[in-house]
# Entry
Amino acid sequence: MTQMKNSEVLRAARALLTPETWTKDAYARNKAGKRVDPGSTAAVCWCASGACEKVTRVFSEAEKALHRTAKGLGARDIYDVNDTAQSVDEVHALFDKAIAAEEAAGR
# Structure
């Protein structure tokens, strides 16, 4: 099996996050709103980090790239960006910057 590039992981994770499938203050939630593991089949919504873990099943280099991007924007980390965002669009903007950086680096 070919390992996904960081940019591919980030694109797949970003695609998971819509206004209906994005959450705050938890990696993932089930239909009842309870916290669950991001890889759980019961998960129906994810935070930025949880979406990355849904794609890779582990804390990945792509997730580290998202952290670096958040820090570069003056945030503490991706959790800070995700949990203070007013909409998923702000989280998508973070992903877009991270994807562009990873593609520029060939990752």
